[in-house]
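Order emerges. As here.
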Amino acid sequence: MKSIQKMFVVSASLALLLSACGTTEQSTEKTNSGTEQVEKDTPQTEEKTVETSTEAPEKPETTETTEPKSEEGTKEEAKEEQPSVDGKERLLEQNLTYEENGKAVEKTGFLKMSDNQHYSMYVLDGYTLDEEEPGKDIVMSSEDQKAFMRIEIVPSDMDLKDVESVVKTTAEAISANAQKYEGFKQEGILKDAVWYKAQTEEDAVNLILIKGSTPMKLSIYTSKDQENIEPFLAMAQTIEVK
């Protein structure tokens, strides 16, 4: 009888022990499951935190300010705007003085450039400078299209004696009565110049070879009854080769 009681006690103890173990395992599983869930959620939170913390903050927009130009800088820009000849700057305007109907006249000339023959000159208001053909330019009066001056810069490799011969031949081709003219003041660009005059029924033609530092041929055409060449000569005085 005692043996049966002992077995009953042992069985009951084992049952209680197994029940306790099952409860412990369930608690452990629940605990582990909760821990795993927390571990799964934790990395996501950390990733978001990292992404937020490493993102560069937006820089505020800044307004660029232009520094005021110095007086020297302004002068330099003004110089660059002015055309130059052989490195020498020329003013954009210059007063030209010449005789007209026996009286001294002063008018403003405006600096113009010839890309055709690479020179600059001052052209009076009421006149235009245009390319006629390679090696030849025309300064023409806006009021009288019969009044114009042809400009031909003499190449440096040409003999001036040959050029003078061409000027004479051209004058004689215009008129058989063409004559060499010597009644002019040999000063300025006209010093040592060679000048021929020729006339047609309507026109007066003055052919001039300038021999100075810038040799050139000038052919000035005007109406026969209005032979006013002084404005053209005043403009030709200002020619400077680049």
Residues 1-66, 68-81 have pLDDT under 50 and may be disordered. Residues 74 and 153 are 36 Å apart (CA to CA). DSSP finds four helices and 13 strands in the chain. The two ends are 142 Å apart (CA to CA).
